[in-house]
Specification:
5-stranded mixed sheet; 3 domains; Rossmann fold; 22% strand; 18 strands
């Protein structure tokens, strides 16, 4: 039962059955491939139980075909729509760490997994942190810890007792089911980077601001900003956490490592990453030839982003090449020594590539806009 709960066999089967899918691709990252056979067997058994009595004798009701996908061409955090199209899939079930980037053509169901965590120890650290600092706290987390957030909320209320409670807000998971997004129209506007925010007046006369990053979403009341909050991250030191640190670098951040049951407050290594990103942008300003690395063929709007990058680069008087090569590595990019810098068009997490071993810097589209377009600096604060 624990296995079926971790892999959400019942909700997955319900998603497939409700949408009448007949061909479904199951996308596993490398570390979860060992469980793929058991997942397929459990899903088949559950799907058979959802069919009407006698349906297995009816030739008009085909059995669902399940296809295991591995070794994705690009980052495993994104839905591999290209791989799914090779088997003519109706939909995709994505397992493990994800960036929840919008899909282009196929609906997707996300199984985040349920990483083990000591709720009591986490609450003790959270309450101590909140009471000690006497400031507002915003709890963010890796998606594999989403299953524990409700328990953490309840235990935190009990731990604080009836006295004055510190103000603690929790992010929510954006969704677990995603339908294809329509391609955005080409425009001259800046693309929406990670950590985007929008005005929200859906709560009567009270205005709030909605933030989203890495599949998480939360609201801040009118007049509040991110710098007013201490950020408490529950999860690993992975690309999702690096995205948080780089995006909200003006906030004080701590990380609770659930695997070690420890609180980490020294984020000097992450701060050094931020300094390096600034250094790469400065080097990009001197580039004469720019290579655009296509890091996805499925994330909604990627073609529009490539088009915008070409216009930006040519407008800055530089030459541009577009390269499609799967996952980049130093050996691949060394074949293009004429390129002074590369722009990695991918999801927000995959695009943060550590390029120390590369001959030329690899930057994100947002960093490219800051480097190549002086007007972006004026609007930068609006995208934090």
């Amino acid at each position: 039962m624990e296995f079926e709960s971790n892999y959400e066999i019942a909700p997955t089967a319900d998603f497939i059955h409700t949408n009448n899918f007949t061909r479904v691709a199951l996308q596993f990252p490398d570390e979860l491939l060992k469980d793929s056979v058991r997942v397929v067997s459990a899903l088949r058994a559950k799907l058979r139980s959802l069919r009407k009595p006698g349906a297995d004798l009816n030739d008009d009701v085909p059995e669902v075909s399940l296809f295991v996908m591995a070794d994705t061409a690009y980052g495993s955090c994104c839905v591999d729509e290209v791989g799914a199209s090779h088997v003519d899939a109706d939909g995709v079930v994505h397992y493990g760490h994800t960036c929840l980037s919008p899909t282009t053509t196929l609906p997707a169901f996300f199984v985040f997994g349920k990483a083990p965590i000591s709720v009591l120890d986490c609450v003790n650290n959270l309450s101590h942190y909140a009471l000690e600092n006497r400031r507002r706290v915003l709890v963010l987390f890796g998606l594999d810890y989403a299953h524990s957030i409700q328990y953490i909320k309840e235990e935190f209320v009990q731990a604080c007792g009836v006295g004055s409670k510190p103000e603690v807000q929790y992010a929510n998971v954006m969704c677990s089911v995603m339908n294809p997004s329509k391609d955005r129209k080409l425009s001259n506007e800046l693309p929406e980077p990670a950590g985007s925010l929008t005005d929200d007046t859906s709560f009567g006369t009270t205005s709030s601001v909605t933030y989203s990053i890495g599949g998480l979403v939360w609201k801040l009341p009118e007049g509040r900003k991110m710098e007013d909050y201490l950020l408490f991250w529950i999860g690993s030191n992975n690309s999702a956490f690096a995205n948080i640190v780089l995006t909200y670098n003006g906030c004080e951040i701590v990380r609770y490592d659930a695997s070690e049951c420890s609180m980490l407050t020294d984020l000097s290594q992450q701060r050094r990453i931020l300094k390096r990103r600034y250094y790469l942008m400065e080097k990009a300003k001197d580039a004469n030839i720019v290579g655009i690395l296509v890091g996805t063929l499925g994330v909604a709007g990627y073609l529009n982003m490539i088009h915008q990058m070409k216009e930006l680069i040519t407008g800055a008087g530089k030459k541009v090449y577009t390269l499609v090569m799967g996952r980049p590595n130093p050996a691949k990019l060394a074949n293009f020594p004429e390129c002074d810098v590369f722009i990695y068009v991918s999801c927000a997490q995959t695009a943060l590539l550590d390029s120390k071993e590369y001959l030329a810097p690899v930057i994100t589209p947002f960093e490219a806009m800051i480097a190549f377009n002086r007007y972006c600096i004026e609007y930068g604060d609006a995208y934090r």
